[in-house]
Design a protein that fits this description.
60% helix; mainly alpha
């Protein structure tokens, strides 16, 4: 017996996992003074090669979650393109570090997943941090 929150294919659980990972990777740390949020993706990008690979693998997990939702190949390809671009540009010194801060591939991928969930699984819609239920 599995609980809905632990089921790998439960849309609501997938949404929660992806949102937490996106926040960790893209906007978990506030830079003092300029009040700009960065995440683990930008921090790992400072470590040559290995950091970019690790950040890319963490981003690939979001695509795997999208695949578990049964998203179309087109959407998965768009998400893979975002992740590959972010990872590849990360290998370029200095430019890659700047792009890690400016091009937030995980946020873009989360937007694609949310659009799919809102359309195909409307019961997972979240409003102001709480789950909303639709009346039938």
């Amino acid at each position: 017996m599995t609980r809905a929150g632990l089921d790998a294919r439960d849309p609501q659980a997938v949404r929660a996992r992806v949102e937490v990972l996106e926040k960790l990777l893209e906007r978990s740390i506030t830079i003092p003074g300029i009040n700009y949020k960065v995440g683990l993706d930008a921090i790992l990008g400072l470590v040559p090669v290995g950091g970019d690979i690790l950040a890319g693998l963490m981003s690939a997990y979001i695509i795997w979650e999208a695949r578990n939702l049964g998203m179309s190949r087109w959407h998965l390809a768009r998400m893979a393109g975002n992740t590959l671009f972010d990872t590849a540009i990360g290998f370029v010194p200095l430019l890659g570090d700047a792009m890690d801060v400016l091009f937030r591939s995980n946020t873009r991928n989360l937007r694609i997943i949310k659009a799919h969930l809102d359309r195909h699984h409307p019961k997972t819609a979240v409003l102001e941090g709480t789950v909303t239920r639709r009346a039938r």
